Protein backbone atom coordinates (compact mmCIF):
# COMPACT_ATOMS: atom_id res chain seq x y z
CA UNK A 1 0.00 0.00 0.00
CA UNK A 2 1.32 3.43 -0.96
CA UNK A 3 0.85 6.72 0.86
CA UNK A 4 1.78 10.02 -0.74
CA UNK A 5 3.13 13.19 0.81
CA UNK A 6 1.26 16.29 -0.33
CA UNK A 7 3.30 19.48 -0.68
CA UNK A 8 1.00 21.78 1.30
CA UNK A 9 -1.95 21.70 3.65
CA UNK A 10 -4.64 22.03 1.03
CA UNK A 11 -7.54 22.33 3.46
CA UNK A 12 -6.39 25.85 4.41
CA UNK A 13 -4.56 26.94 1.27
CA UNK A 14 -7.26 27.97 -1.16
CA UNK A 15 -7.10 31.72 -0.65
CA UNK A 16 -3.63 32.07 -2.09
CA UNK A 17 -2.71 28.65 -3.46
CA UNK A 18 0.40 26.65 -2.62
CA UNK A 19 3.88 27.76 -3.59
CA UNK A 20 5.33 26.17 -6.70
CA UNK A 21 8.72 24.53 -6.63
CA UNK A 22 11.46 24.75 -9.26
CA UNK A 23 10.37 21.58 -11.01
CA UNK A 24 6.84 22.98 -11.40
CA UNK A 25 8.20 26.11 -13.07
CA UNK A 26 9.86 24.05 -15.77
CA UNK A 27 6.49 23.01 -17.21
CA UNK A 28 3.37 25.07 -16.61
CA UNK A 29 1.44 23.52 -19.49
CA UNK A 30 -1.63 21.49 -18.64
CA UNK A 31 -1.37 19.10 -21.54
CA UNK A 32 1.03 18.13 -24.23
CA UNK A 33 -0.32 21.03 -26.23
CA UNK A 34 -0.18 23.54 -23.39
CA UNK A 35 -3.66 24.73 -24.35
CA UNK A 36 -5.09 24.98 -20.82
CA UNK A 37 -8.37 23.67 -19.47
CA UNK A 38 -12.04 24.63 -19.25
CA UNK A 39 -13.99 24.31 -16.01
CA UNK A 40 -17.80 24.54 -15.69
CA UNK A 41 -20.13 24.93 -12.73
CA UNK A 42 -23.16 26.51 -11.11
CA UNK A 43 -24.88 29.62 -12.50
CA UNK A 44 -23.34 29.38 -15.98
CA UNK A 45 -19.82 29.47 -14.54
CA UNK A 46 -17.09 28.81 -17.10
CA UNK A 47 -13.42 29.25 -16.23
CA UNK A 48 -10.24 28.92 -18.26
CA UNK A 49 -6.99 27.60 -16.79
CA UNK A 50 -3.64 28.52 -18.36
CA UNK A 51 -0.57 27.46 -16.39
CA UNK A 52 -1.32 28.50 -12.80
CA UNK A 53 -3.82 31.23 -13.78
CA UNK A 54 -7.61 30.81 -13.69
CA UNK A 55 -9.81 33.35 -15.49
CA UNK A 56 -13.47 33.85 -16.43
CA UNK A 57 -15.18 36.34 -18.71
CA UNK A 58 -17.18 34.06 -21.02
CA UNK A 59 -20.49 35.49 -22.24
CA UNK A 60 -22.54 32.34 -22.67
CA UNK A 61 -26.03 33.85 -22.88
CA UNK A 62 -27.42 31.27 -20.45
CA UNK A 63 -28.28 31.07 -16.77
CA UNK A 64 -28.13 27.28 -16.62
CA UNK A 65 -26.04 25.33 -14.16
CA UNK A 66 -23.30 23.72 -16.24
CA UNK A 67 -22.68 20.16 -15.10
CA UNK A 68 -20.18 18.53 -17.49
CA UNK A 69 -17.79 19.28 -20.35
CA UNK A 70 -16.03 17.19 -22.99
CA UNK A 71 -13.42 18.42 -25.48
CA UNK A 72 -12.63 17.12 -28.96
CA UNK A 73 -9.24 18.02 -30.36
CA UNK A 74 -7.87 21.52 -29.93
CA UNK A 75 -10.86 23.50 -31.19
CA UNK A 76 -14.11 21.83 -30.11
CA UNK A 77 -15.84 21.38 -26.76
CA UNK A 78 -19.33 20.55 -25.56
CA UNK A 79 -21.02 21.55 -22.28
CA UNK A 80 -24.28 20.26 -20.80
CA UNK A 81 -26.47 21.48 -17.96
CA UNK A 82 -29.93 22.18 -16.63
CA UNK A 83 -33.00 22.84 -18.80
CA UNK A 84 -31.69 20.72 -21.68
CA UNK A 85 -28.68 22.98 -22.16
CA UNK A 86 -26.00 21.98 -24.65
CA UNK A 87 -23.32 24.51 -25.64
CA UNK A 88 -20.73 23.93 -28.36
CA UNK A 89 -17.60 25.67 -29.59
CA UNK A 90 -15.49 24.86 -32.63
CA UNK A 91 -13.10 27.83 -32.40
CA UNK A 92 -11.22 27.19 -29.15
CA UNK A 93 -13.88 28.90 -27.06
CA UNK A 94 -13.94 32.22 -28.91
CA UNK A 95 -17.67 31.70 -29.46
CA UNK A 96 -20.19 29.30 -27.94
CA UNK A 97 -23.54 28.42 -29.48
CA UNK A 98 -26.59 26.80 -27.95
CA UNK A 99 -27.50 23.51 -29.63
CA UNK A 100 -31.26 22.94 -29.67
CA UNK A 101 -32.23 19.48 -28.47
CA UNK A 102 -35.59 17.80 -28.22
CA UNK A 103 -35.55 17.83 -24.41
CA UNK A 104 -35.71 20.17 -21.43
CA UNK A 105 -34.39 17.52 -19.06
CA UNK A 106 -31.36 18.15 -16.90
CA UNK A 107 -28.38 16.92 -18.92
CA UNK A 108 -25.71 15.59 -16.57
CA UNK A 109 -23.15 13.91 -18.85
CA UNK A 110 -21.40 14.45 -22.17
CA UNK A 111 -18.69 12.39 -23.86
CA UNK A 112 -16.68 12.53 -27.09
CA UNK A 113 -14.83 9.77 -28.93
CA UNK A 114 -11.11 10.40 -29.67
CA UNK A 115 -11.15 8.53 -32.99
CA UNK A 116 -14.44 9.72 -34.47
CA UNK A 117 -16.92 12.61 -34.51
CA UNK A 118 -19.29 10.87 -32.09
CA UNK A 119 -20.76 12.89 -29.21
CA UNK A 120 -23.15 11.52 -26.57
CA UNK A 121 -25.24 13.51 -24.09
CA UNK A 122 -27.41 12.04 -21.34
CA UNK A 123 -29.50 13.13 -18.38
CA UNK A 124 -32.76 12.79 -16.51
CA UNK A 125 -35.91 10.90 -17.55
CA UNK A 126 -34.11 8.73 -20.09
CA UNK A 127 -32.66 11.58 -22.14
CA UNK A 128 -29.86 10.04 -24.23
CA UNK A 129 -28.78 11.42 -27.61
CA UNK A 130 -25.97 10.65 -30.02
CA UNK A 131 -24.36 12.76 -32.72
CA UNK A 132 -22.14 11.41 -35.49
CA UNK A 133 -21.07 14.87 -36.70
CA UNK A 134 -19.72 16.79 -33.68
CA UNK A 135 -23.13 18.02 -32.48
CA UNK A 136 -24.38 19.32 -35.83
CA UNK A 137 -27.29 16.90 -35.51
CA UNK A 138 -28.49 14.42 -32.87
CA UNK A 139 -30.55 11.25 -32.81
CA UNK A 140 -32.30 9.90 -29.74
CA UNK A 141 -30.89 6.67 -28.34
CA UNK A 142 -33.56 4.15 -27.41
CA UNK A 143 -32.65 3.13 -23.87
CA UNK A 144 -34.39 2.27 -20.60
CA UNK A 145 -35.84 5.31 -18.83
CA UNK A 146 -33.51 6.27 -16.00
CA UNK A 147 -31.89 9.43 -14.70
CA UNK A 148 -28.47 9.09 -16.33
CA UNK A 149 -25.47 10.64 -14.59
CA UNK A 150 -22.48 9.40 -16.59
CA UNK A 151 -21.26 8.24 -20.00
CA UNK A 152 -18.10 6.35 -20.97
CA UNK A 153 -17.13 5.70 -24.60
CA UNK A 154 -14.55 3.55 -26.30
CA UNK A 155 -12.10 5.42 -28.53
CA UNK A 156 -14.08 4.79 -31.71
CA UNK A 157 -17.40 5.81 -30.20
CA UNK A 158 -18.94 2.49 -31.22
CA UNK A 159 -19.75 1.43 -27.64
CA UNK A 160 -21.21 3.64 -24.92
CA UNK A 161 -21.74 2.77 -21.27
CA UNK A 162 -24.61 4.79 -19.78
CA UNK A 163 -24.67 5.09 -15.99
CA UNK A 164 -27.89 5.73 -14.08
CA UNK A 165 -27.87 7.11 -10.57
CA UNK A 166 -29.86 4.15 -9.27
CA UNK A 167 -27.01 1.76 -10.12
CA UNK A 168 -28.19 0.59 -13.55
CA UNK A 169 -25.57 0.44 -16.32
CA UNK A 170 -26.67 0.24 -19.96
CA UNK A 171 -24.36 -0.66 -22.84
CA UNK A 172 -25.28 0.87 -26.21
CA UNK A 173 -23.72 -0.24 -29.50
CA UNK A 174 -24.76 -1.09 -33.05
CA UNK A 175 -26.99 -3.86 -31.70
CA UNK A 176 -28.97 -1.44 -29.55
CA UNK A 177 -29.18 -0.84 -25.81
CA UNK A 178 -28.75 -3.60 -23.23
CA UNK A 179 -28.69 -3.28 -19.43
CA UNK A 180 -25.46 -4.92 -18.24
CA UNK A 181 -26.06 -4.16 -14.57
CA UNK A 182 -29.51 -3.93 -13.02
CA UNK A 183 -28.73 -4.15 -9.30
CA UNK A 184 -30.12 -0.97 -7.75
CA UNK A 185 -28.61 -1.61 -4.33
CA UNK A 186 -26.18 1.32 -4.49
CA UNK A 187 -26.29 4.83 -5.93
CA UNK A 188 -23.62 5.33 -8.60
CA UNK A 189 -22.26 8.68 -9.75
CA UNK A 190 -19.48 8.26 -12.34
CA UNK A 191 -18.13 5.82 -14.93
CA UNK A 192 -14.98 5.43 -17.06
CA UNK A 193 -13.84 2.97 -19.73
CA UNK A 194 -10.60 1.96 -21.40
CA UNK A 195 -9.99 2.91 -25.03
CA UNK A 196 -11.00 -0.53 -26.26
CA UNK A 197 -14.10 -0.60 -24.05
CA UNK A 198 -12.99 -3.77 -22.31
CA UNK A 199 -12.31 -2.33 -18.85
CA UNK A 200 -15.12 -0.33 -17.23
CA UNK A 201 -15.21 1.12 -13.72
CA UNK A 202 -18.08 2.84 -11.88
CA UNK A 203 -18.12 4.57 -8.49
CA UNK A 204 -20.73 5.93 -6.13
CA UNK A 205 -22.00 6.38 -2.62
CA UNK A 206 -20.31 4.90 0.44
CA UNK A 207 -17.03 4.31 -1.39
CA UNK A 208 -18.64 1.91 -3.87
CA UNK A 209 -16.45 0.87 -6.80
CA UNK A 210 -17.43 -1.72 -9.43
CA UNK A 211 -15.05 -3.09 -12.05
CA UNK A 212 -15.64 -5.05 -15.27
CA UNK A 213 -12.88 -6.50 -17.46
CA UNK A 214 -15.24 -7.88 -20.12
CA UNK A 215 -17.13 -4.81 -21.41
CA UNK A 216 -19.76 -4.99 -18.70
CA UNK A 217 -20.43 -8.71 -18.97
CA UNK A 218 -19.79 -9.13 -15.25
CA UNK A 219 -18.92 -6.84 -12.34
CA UNK A 220 -16.69 -7.16 -9.29
CA UNK A 221 -16.81 -4.98 -6.19
CA UNK A 222 -13.44 -3.34 -5.46
CA UNK A 223 -12.50 -2.39 -1.91
CA UNK A 224 -11.70 1.33 -1.70
CA UNK A 225 -11.19 1.37 2.11
CA UNK A 226 -13.33 4.52 2.37
CA UNK A 227 -16.98 5.17 3.16
CA UNK A 228 -16.96 8.58 1.45
CA UNK A 229 -19.23 9.14 -1.54
CA UNK A 230 -17.22 9.07 -4.78
CA UNK A 231 -18.11 11.52 -7.57
CA UNK A 232 -15.58 10.95 -10.39
CA UNK A 233 -13.26 8.20 -11.62
CA UNK A 234 -10.49 7.78 -14.20
CA UNK A 235 -8.55 4.82 -15.59
CA UNK A 236 -4.78 5.32 -15.99
CA UNK A 237 -1.86 3.20 -17.19
CA UNK A 238 -3.94 1.06 -19.50
CA UNK A 239 -6.45 0.29 -16.78
CA UNK A 240 -3.81 -0.81 -14.28
CA UNK A 241 -4.45 2.24 -12.10
CA UNK A 242 -7.74 3.76 -10.95
CA UNK A 243 -8.20 7.22 -9.43
CA UNK A 244 -11.47 8.23 -7.78
CA UNK A 245 -12.44 11.39 -5.87
CA UNK A 246 -15.33 12.55 -3.74
CA UNK A 247 -16.54 13.90 -0.41
CA UNK A 248 -14.02 15.56 1.93
CA UNK A 249 -11.64 15.66 -1.00
CA UNK A 250 -11.07 11.94 -0.75
CA UNK A 251 -8.60 10.60 -3.31
CA UNK A 252 -8.62 6.84 -3.85
CA UNK A 253 -5.59 5.54 -5.78
CA UNK A 254 -5.70 1.84 -6.68
CA UNK A 255 -3.14 -0.21 -8.59
CA UNK A 256 -2.00 -3.85 -8.41
CA UNK A 257 -0.07 -3.11 -5.20
CA UNK A 258 -3.19 -2.01 -3.31
CA UNK A 259 -5.26 1.04 -2.44
CA UNK A 260 -4.06 4.35 -1.00
CA UNK A 261 -6.65 6.76 0.40
CA UNK A 262 -5.99 10.41 1.23
CA UNK A 263 -8.42 13.16 2.21
CA UNK A 264 -7.31 16.49 0.74
CA UNK A 265 -10.06 18.77 2.08
CA UNK A 266 -12.25 19.45 5.08
CA UNK A 267 -15.34 17.33 5.76
CA UNK A 268 -17.85 19.75 4.22
CA UNK A 269 -15.98 20.10 0.93
CA UNK A 270 -16.56 17.94 -2.14
CA UNK A 271 -14.50 17.13 -5.23
CA UNK A 272 -16.82 16.73 -8.23
CA UNK A 273 -14.68 16.58 -11.37
CA UNK A 274 -11.29 15.28 -12.50
CA UNK A 275 -9.07 15.28 -15.57
CA UNK A 276 -5.63 13.71 -15.95
CA UNK A 277 -3.95 13.44 -19.33
CA UNK A 278 -1.44 10.90 -20.62
CA UNK A 279 1.45 13.24 -19.75
CA UNK A 280 0.49 13.35 -16.07
CA UNK A 281 -1.01 16.86 -16.01
CA UNK A 282 -4.34 17.02 -14.24
CA UNK A 283 -6.94 18.97 -12.31
CA UNK A 284 -9.56 18.37 -9.63
CA UNK A 285 -12.53 20.72 -9.18
CA UNK A 286 -15.21 20.93 -6.53
CA UNK A 287 -17.35 22.92 -4.14
CA UNK A 288 -16.63 26.57 -3.26
CA UNK A 289 -14.52 27.14 -6.35
CA UNK A 290 -11.92 24.50 -5.48
CA UNK A 291 -9.32 23.86 -8.19
CA UNK A 292 -6.30 21.61 -7.61
CA UNK A 293 -3.53 20.91 -10.12
CA UNK A 294 -1.08 18.04 -10.51
CA UNK A 295 1.92 17.57 -12.79
CA UNK A 296 2.86 14.05 -11.68
CA UNK A 297 -0.17 11.94 -12.61
CA UNK A 298 -2.06 12.75 -9.43
CA UNK A 299 0.58 11.84 -6.88
CA UNK A 300 0.81 15.39 -5.52
CA UNK A 301 -1.58 18.33 -5.79
CA UNK A 302 -1.45 22.10 -5.40
CA UNK A 303 -4.27 24.61 -4.98
CA UNK A 304 -5.03 27.24 -7.63
CA UNK A 305 -6.94 30.44 -6.89
CA UNK A 306 -10.13 30.28 -8.96
CA UNK A 307 -11.64 33.62 -7.98
CA UNK A 308 -15.10 32.09 -7.45
CA UNK A 309 -17.11 30.36 -4.75
CA UNK A 310 -19.34 28.60 -7.26
CA UNK A 311 -19.62 24.83 -7.17
CA UNK A 312 -17.47 23.48 -10.01
CA UNK A 313 -18.55 20.19 -11.59
CA UNK A 314 -16.68 19.47 -14.82
CA UNK A 315 -13.26 19.96 -16.36
CA UNK A 316 -11.56 18.94 -19.61
CA UNK A 317 -8.47 19.92 -21.58
CA UNK A 318 -8.52 20.65 -25.33
CA UNK A 319 -6.17 18.41 -27.28
CA UNK A 320 -5.07 16.38 -24.29
CA UNK A 321 -3.95 12.82 -24.88
CA UNK A 322 -6.17 10.62 -22.74
CA UNK A 323 -4.44 7.96 -20.65
CA UNK A 324 -6.01 4.72 -21.93
Overview of this protein structure:
It is a single chain. The protein has 1 helix and 28 strands. It is mainly β and 324 residues long. The chain has one domain: YVTN repeat-like/Quinoprotein amine dehydrogenase (Methylamine Dehydrogenase, Chain H, 7 Propeller). The protein has a 4-stranded antiparallel beta sheet with strand order 3-2-1-28, with no helix packed on it. A 4-stranded antiparallel beta sheet has the order 4-5-6-7, with no helix packed on it. A hairpin with a 5-residue loop joins strand 24 and strand 25. The chain starts with 21 loop residues before the first helix and ends in an 8-residue tail after the last strand.
In short:
This protein has 324 residues and is an all-beta fold. The chain contains one helix and 28 strands.
Derived structural class: mainly beta
Which architecture would the CATH scheme give at its second level?
A: 7 Propeller
- List the total number of helices: 1
Any idea what the radius of gyration is? 18 Å
Topology:
Layout: H1 22-25, E1 37-41, E2 45-50, E3 53-55, E4 66-72, E5 76-81, E6 86-89, E7 97-98, E8 107-112, E9 119-123, E10 128-131, E11 139-140, E12 148-153, E13 160-164, E14 169-173, E15 176-181, E16 188-193, E17 200-204, E18 209-212, E19 220-221, E20 230-236, E21 241-246, E22 250-255, E23 258-263, E24 271-276, E25 282-286, E26 291-294, E27 302-304, E28 312-316
Amino acid sequence: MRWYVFPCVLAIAFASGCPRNDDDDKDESTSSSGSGAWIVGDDATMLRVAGVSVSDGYDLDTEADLLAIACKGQASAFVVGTAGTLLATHDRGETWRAVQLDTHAVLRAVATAPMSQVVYVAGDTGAVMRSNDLAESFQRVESPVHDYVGIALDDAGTTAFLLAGDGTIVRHDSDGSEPVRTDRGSNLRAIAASGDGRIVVAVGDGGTMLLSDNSGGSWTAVSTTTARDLHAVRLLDGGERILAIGDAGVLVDIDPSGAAVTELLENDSVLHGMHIDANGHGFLVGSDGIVLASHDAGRTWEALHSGTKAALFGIDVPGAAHPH
